[in-house]
């Protein structure tokens, strides 16, 4: 491509809120055959809120929320922010947590007032030897409503199931349909559990989805598609998406996402809407036509 036509394309895209950081990516965008989308913060708004707190022992609900929010205040995950805001809304004070540790794709742990706190998904509990018993069914029911269930254990005893729901962006479904009408296969990847993923995938109409994907496996999945001959676009917002964004033929970062994701992407969707994908592809096609 001539530098001039690329410059024009970059300017056109910017008008649509699509920031092109890499001119080569603009040329590749029109060749994408598979678009891989992260779920949380990409298809969904990424500002989940707490919907259910099921307490399983004799602690009261506000104490459970206080401890959960105290540990989550050390995490920058969207789920953590939901728990912290829920405590704030109820004017619950946070208490000190030490030895905080984030376990990627699973949850968090730390020490508080001499007790060990563990908060996260089913896998985290299973790996740490926390018995979930009937809580698994409660979690599944919540997940079927497209909510994300999280388990809370104190000293390795399960004390609560807390669910959050994250609204699907109003235009995600239409934006995905637009990509499909361009002949692009749309795939959703998420670290979230299978039941929640099924519920969201149905609502937005993706062609395929993969649930319970560990952060390091997002990039591996991109590579699987590339080795099958696909030209892969990857869209994400989180730190955990960064390696996949860097590896994809074109990495699209959500403008409201983390800095690490934005730096790893080639193109930033400033408006957060997934319509930016089809917009970028349209500009890419026009740019290539101008060159010929
Ligand atoms: P995604 O952005 O695709 O949902 P993540 O890898 O960020 O994937 O998270 C995967 C799962 O790990 C979440 O759905 C949640 O169950 C669990 N998890 C990760 N971080 C936290 C956290 N800070 N608090 C609770 N659960 C968490
Ligand atoms: Mg995400």
From TrEMBL:
The keyword Cell membrane applies. It is found in: Cell membrane. Keywords: ATP-binding, Cell membrane, Copper, Copper transport, Ion transport, Membrane, Metal-binding, Nucleotide-binding, Phosphoprotein, Translocase, Transmembrane, Transmembrane helix, Transport. Coiled coil: none annotated. The keyword Ion transport applies. Belongs to the cation transport ATPase (P-type) (TC 3.A.3) family. Type IB subfamily. This is Copper-exporting P-type ATPase. It comes from Motilimonas cestriensis.
């Amino acid at each position: 491509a001539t530098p001039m036509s690329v410059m024009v394309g970059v300017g056109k895209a910017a008008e649509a809120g699509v920031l092109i950081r890499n001119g080569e990516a603009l040329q590749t965008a029109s060749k994408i055959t598979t678009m891989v989308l992260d779920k949380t913060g990409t298809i969904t708004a990424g500002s989940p809120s707490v919907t259910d707190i099921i307490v399983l022992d004799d602690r009261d609900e506000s104490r459970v929320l206080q401890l959960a929010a105290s540990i989550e205040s050390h995490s920058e995950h969207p789920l953590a922010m939901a728990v912290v805001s829920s405590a704030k809304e109820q004017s619950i004070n946070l208490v000190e947590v030490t030895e905080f540790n984030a376990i990627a794709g699973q949850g968090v742990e730390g020490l508080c007032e001499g007790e060990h706190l563990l908060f996260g998904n089913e896998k985290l509990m299973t790996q740490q030897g926390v018995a979930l018993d009937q809580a698994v069914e409660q979690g599944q029911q919540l997940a079927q409503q497209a909510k994300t269930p999280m388990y809370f254990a104190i000293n390795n005893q399960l004390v609560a199931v807390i669910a959050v729901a994250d609204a699907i962006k109003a235009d995600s479904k239409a934006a995905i349909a637009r990509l499909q009408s361009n002949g692009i296969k749309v795939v959703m990847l998420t670290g979230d559990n299978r039941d929640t993923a099924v519920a969201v995938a149905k609502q937005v109409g993706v062609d395929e989805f993969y649930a319970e994907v560990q952060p390091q496996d997002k990039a591996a999945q991109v590579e699987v598609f590339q080795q099958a001959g696909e030209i892969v676009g990857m869209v994400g917002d989180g730190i955990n998406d960064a390696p996949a964004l860097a590896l994809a033929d074109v990495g699209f970062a959500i403008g409201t996402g983390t800095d690490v994701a934005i730096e790893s992407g080639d193109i930033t969707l400033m408006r957060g809407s997934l319509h930016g994908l089809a917009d970028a592809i349209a500009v890419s096609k026009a740019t290539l036509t101008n060159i010929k």
